[in-house]
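#struct-pred

JT: dropping the chains for the assembly here, can someone run the whole complex?
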Amino acid sequence: MGRKPCCDKFVVKKGPWTAEEDAKLVSFILTNGHCCWRAVPKLAGLRRCGKSCRLRWTNYLRPDLKRGLLNEEEEKLVIDLHARLGNRWSKIASRLPGRTDNEIKNHWNTHIKKKLIKMGIDPITHEPLHQEPDPIIISQQMPHSPSNNNNNNCLNSENFNYSTGQESPENANNQTTSNDNLTFPRKNLTGYETQKDDDDDPLMSCIQSETFLDDAFWNFANTSRGDQDYTEFGLSSSSSSSSSEDCNSTWLLDYNDFDFDLECFNIDMSTFEVDATIN
DNA sequence: AAGTTTATCAACCGCGTGCGC
DNA sequence: TGCGCACGCGGTTGATAAACT
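RK: done, full complex below.
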């Protein structure tokens, strides 16, 4: 018995995607959207499993993705969020515009984990490694513990010293800030909309009560959101963009031969032209 | 230069969850 | 209420590149 396979394993192709497959998928989704991932490969003319198409799109082909390694601020945020959420990578990724859960998970396992260990911090508990863990305390402080949702046990980027692994006592009791009207950026195909679906999630409520998630915190990712600046999409609208930012958008240039309908993204195509001239 | 080890990350797999019937 | 389907998530694998011996 066992679970029915999601697709015919003798028909679907596996392994790395080719440029041609990428082009087919991007072209199809930008034109038609993805009403049903299972149907996408068939309709797009791909010998892939729908699951694989979704993954390829969300992790690599989506136009709003940033490319390149996480910067210092993003890393810090990932550590903060991991301390609260544990390995809930998709939740963590939802707080980092242009980053995917897979990317963050990989980065955590290959970079951050090692850094924390080097600093003497347990990457699982976020406690100093030299301390013998108390199972009772850990159970109370585990990010997934419901009892932890509204307390001050969460480590906070503002008062946690990643060099020492200690929380500074003067700030430890000042974590709750007024955020009655706080809204959070959320990625979707059309950009950002007010986050609502996490309202009922006590863990997310815990996060949303933290200072570091105030809009100002996101300035590192977007310094002029209101003026058609798509830096969080990896699209630089400025002619002074750095080389790394240029790299962020070069992937799209590979597809400039295709007849894309980008209206669904609310993206000003002139943005692309600027980068194209830079390159 | 060749072989080996380590690091990185794209992609796969299986399971949990939500939803419609 | 139970069942099946589809999606999304998190853990894991495997291919490749880079570093090392």
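JT: nice. The first helix of chain A runs from residue 19 to 32. Residues 4, 6, 15-16, 36-38, 50-51, 54, 58, 87-90, 101-102, 105 of chain A lie near DNA strand C (CB under 10 Å from a C1').
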